[in-house]
Amino acid sequence: MLLELDDVSKVYGVSCGNCLELTGDSSECAICPECNAVVAVNRVNLSVEENEIVGVVGESGSGKSTLLQMIYQDQKATSGEIYFNGLKDSNGNKLSLFNLPSGKTSWVRNHEMSMIYQNPHLGLNFNFSAGGNIAEKIIGSGEKRYQIIRDRALHFFGKIEMPTSRIDDYPEAFSGGQQQRIQIAKALSSSPRLLLLDEPTTGLDVSVQAKILDLIKALQYEMGFSMIVVSHDLGVINHLTDLTLVMKNGCLVEYGLTDQILEDPQHPYTQLLVSSKL
Amino acid sequence: MTTNKVTFGFFDEDAKKEIRRASLKAVALPGYIVPFASREMPIARGWGTGGLQVTLSLITEEDTLKVIDQGCDGSVNAVNIREFIVSVTGVKQTMATPEATVIQTRHRVPEYPLTSNQILVYQVPIPEVLTIVEPDTAKQKEMHASVDYSKLWVLLYEDTSQFGDSRISSRYPVRVNDHFVMDPSPIPKYDIPKLNNNPSLQLFGAGREKRIYAIPPYTKVEPLKFTDREFIIEDFGDKCCERCGATDVYLDEVHQEDGVHFFCSDTYHCDTNKNEVEDAA
Predict the structure, then answer these.
(1) Which residue in A133, A136, A145 is closest to B228 by CB distance?
(2) Which residue range(s) make up the domain with A190?
(3) Which of A181, A242, B206, B278 is most solvent-facing, going by the fewest CB within 10 Å?
C-alpha cells in the first residue's frame, strides 16, 4: 500500500461539530446549515497501490483539489490521517503525514511525491531558469554534485521533448504547453513514488493536451510511479486512469474501475456527469 | 527633574542587557538570526548601527578598540565610529590588530590572524541569506528549520551552468556548524576561509534589520558549494601591493587617470609590512 487515506476531512471556518453529518452527498451543498462552515472534504477513505493510477472527478467546488493539497501537505486536514509508504514512528506505529517532524515533511515532499499544478505559476519558480527549476527538485532530494544535477536536468528536459539548448531559458520565454511540460520534467526529476496532477491539461489546446497526456502515460509506464489525477475532463480520466473516484460536496460518492464508472454509472450525480459529456 | 548623566557605553543598563541577551542566544545557536530591539543611534541606520550596538553592549573599560572600514582604520566612517565609542566609554583605541580586543569591521576580516582574546564585530546590511530567493519571512523560517536551502543551491546551479562558477563575489553564503546557512556580511570570498575554526568570537549586527547572529570561536564554517566543484577565492595573479609589496593579501583595485593600481586593503597590515621591509633593507 503506497497511500492510505483514513476518514480525511477538511472544514473551512469554525465547525459546530455536526458539520460532517449535516452536509455531503445527500444534502444540497457543502455549507453546514447550522454554522455556515464549508466542508471541502468529508470523511474520504482511499487507498492507492504502487503503480496505480487513480482519477478524481467532480464538479468545481467538490473538494478535488483540496484532497490533493492535503496529500501533498500544502494544507492540513481538520480530521483523519494520511499514511504514506509504510512510514512508522519509533514505536513501530503507522505515522500519519500530518504528524511528521518538520524536516521529514520536506523530505517526503522532495523525495517521495511531486505535484503538477494546473497553473505553471504555482509549480514553477519564474525567477529560476527551466533547468534551475528542475535542479531545485533534484537538489531537494539530496543531490549535491553539480555534474549529476546538470546531467539529470538535461536528461529530463530531453524526456519532455524540448531542445536541450533551451534549458537555461527562463519560464516566461516558453509557451503555456511548454511550461506545463517543464513542470512535468521538474516533478519527475526526483523519481517520485507518487505523482499528483491537479488539472494538468486544463487550458491547453487539444493537440497539446493529447501530447502531454501521452507523455505522462509513457513516462509512467517507463518509470513506474503511482498517480492521482484530478480533472473535470472525463476524456483525460478515461485516457489516463485505471480507477476513478467521484466526488460531490466533499464526499466520495462512487469509486471503481474507470471503464465501469464511465459505462455504467450508479450514483445519480455520476450519471448526470457522464451524460453531460459532450 | 531629569538627569542627563552619560552612562558607560552610551546605552542604559537595560538596553545593554537586551542586546547581550540576543548576542548570547546567537552564540548558543551558531548562524541563527536573533531579532533584537535595534535602538536609535547618533548615526543613521545603514551606517553600522548594528555593529555599533553590539560593540557598545559588550565593551568594558579594559578593552582596546579597533574599527575598520573595508580594512582601513583611517576612513571617515571608521574614524567617526571609533571616536564615538571612545567618547562614550573612554577605552583605549588602536590600529594594531594584535593589540585590539574588540574589532568592529565593515566588509573585511583583518589579514592578521585573530586570537581567542579578540571579538570581531561585523556590520551587516542584509542578515537574511534567503531574502534573494524567498521574500516571505514565514517561509524563510520554515526553510531554516528544516535545513531546506535548495533554492540557494539553484542560484549556484544557474551560475555554474551559465558562467562556469558562482558569480557571487561578496556575501557568499556559508553553512555554520553543519546546520544554518547564513550571510557572512559583504566580505569578499577571499575572507570566507578565515571564518572557519577561527579562535575569536565573531558577532554580526544588523541595525536597520534589527538582527544579531554569531559564529562562536572554533566553529566549523564552510561555503555552500557543490561537492564536485571547488571554492575559488580571488586570485590577483602576479599583482602585489604598490606600497608595501605584499602578495599574499587581499588587494584593492584603484582606478586612476594613469591606470589601475593595487594596494593592500588592510591598512594596518600594509603599514607593518612596509616597516618590516624597510627595516630589513
Answers:
(1) A145
(2) 3-275
(3) B278
What would the pLDDT profile of B203-255 be if each residue is shown by its tens digit? 999 999 999 999 999 999 999 999 999 999 999 999 999 999 999 999 999 99
Nearest CA in chain B to A101: B146
- Domain ends where: B179, B194, B223? B223
pTM of the complete model: 0.87
Q: Is the pLDDT of residue A229 over 80?
A: yes
B37, B92: one domain: yes
Which CATH number fits the domain that encloses residue B77? 3.40.50.11310
B1 pLDDT higher than 60: no
Give me the residue from A106, A127, A149 closest to B157, CB to CB: A149
B244 belongs to the catalytic site? yes
Q: Which range marks the domain in which residue B39 is found?
A: 13-137+170-223
Distance CA A261, CA A256 (A): 6
Query: Of B51, B72, B207, B270, which is the active-site residue?
Result: B270
* B184 shares a domain with B104: yes
| pLDDT value, residue B3 | 59
- Give chain A's domain count: 1
Chain A residues closer than 8 Å to B228 by CB: 145-148
User: pLDDT, tens digit, for every residue of A47-74?
Assistant: 999 999 999 998 888 899 999 999 998 8
Angle formed by the axes of helices A146-159 and A130-140, nearest 10°: 120
**CA–CA min distance A143, chain B (Å):** 9
Indicate if B264 belongs to the active site.
yes
Alpha-carbon gap, residue B110 to B191, rounded angstroms: 9
- Tell me the mean pLDDT in the region A138-160: 93
Using 50, 70 and 90 to split pLDDT, how confident is the model at A278?
low
Q: Is residue B270 annotated as a catalytic residue, yes or no?
A: yes
CATH code, domain carrying A100: 3.40.50.300
| Span B99-148, pLDDT tens digits | 999 999 999 999 999 999 999 999 999 999 999 999 999 999 989 998 88
The residue among A238 and B217 whose pLDDT is bigger is B217
> Under a CB-based contact definition with an 8 Å cutoff, are residues A52 and A258 in contact?
no
Residues of A with CB below 8 A from B142's CB? 102
Judged by a CB distance cut-off of 8 A, whether residue B231 touches chain A is no
CA-closest candidate to residue B8, choices B48, B63, B71, B69 = B63
Query: Cell numbers 466542508 label which residue?
Result: A39
What letter does residue A31 receive in the DSSP assignment? B
Query: Is B55 part of any domain?
Result: yes
Q: Please say whether the beta carbons of B195 and B109 come within 8 A.
A: yes
Kindly state whether B229 is in contact with chain A, defined as any CB-CB distance less than 8 angstroms. yes
> Does B218 touch chain A if contact means CB atoms closer than 8 Å?
no
CB spacing of B153 vs A125 below 8 angstroms: no
Identify the bridge partners of residue B68 per DSSP, sorted by sequence position: B105
